[in-house]
Amino acid sequence: MKTFKTSSYIGLARERYNLPIYPVLINILPHVKKPNIPDFYEQEFMGMKSYQDYRVINLWEDLEPLLSFFAAFVLEMPIVQQIMRWDMIVLRESPWYQEILKEGEKRGEQRGETNLVIRQLSKRFGNLDQELAAQIRQLSSPQLETLGESIFDFSAMADLENW
To answer: What's the Rg (C-alpha) of the chain?
Structure first.
């Protein structure tokens, strides 16, 4: 009965979703540098031979960066690094890390643009009111660029306030 259900799911995945089908062995044993796990199965029974190749997935390796990420919210970083053996090289290659890095770079660039525009305005008109500076910090990058270009057209603080 189990074979029938498995075959049915394989057929459904292949036919309906056009997905590749291949056997997988999921290793849930603790982390070992080079686990000695074969990537095939073979057996002889009553004169018949059976052989199957499969892919080995070491679950611990795939989940370690994710577990480390979430553990860092509730534990101190040195403890997380000690428990998880956090490998920064593996983490840096993860898609999550790359997205977080891009977001951080984008925010850093915008913060730099904001600070530059505020410094330019302060040099031109004197120290800015804190409320006005806070409004400038809320501007998007395109708005900051437009404001930065408009600074040279302002002749008084009223021009900035009207902008």
So the answer is: 29
Q: How far apart are CA 44 and CA 42, in angstroms?
A: 7
Contact 160, 121 (CB under 8 A): yes
Element (H, E) at 88: helix 88-92
For 13-38, the pLDDT digits (tens) are 788 888 888 888 888 776 666 778 89
Q: What is the spatial distance between Cα 110 and Cα 51, in angstroms, rounded to a whole number?
A: 59
Angle between helices 95-125 and 141-150 (to 10 degrees): 20
- Indicate if the alpha-carbon torsion angle 68, 74, 77, 78 is positive or negative: negative
Average pLDDT over residues 96-124: 90
Both tokens assigned to 69: 């990420």
CA distances from 101 to 67, 69, 87 (A): 19, 14, 17
Other C-beta atoms closer than 10 Å to the C-beta of 49 total 8
Q: At what angle do helices 59-71 and 77-84 cross, to 10 degrees?
A: 170
For residue 124, count other CB atoms closer than 10 A to its CB: 14
Helix (H, G, I), strand (E, B) or coil at 34: coil
Q: Facing residues of 51 across strands?
A: 42
In 3D space, the residue among 65, 133, 141, 121 whose CA is nearest the CA of residue 96 turns out to be: 65
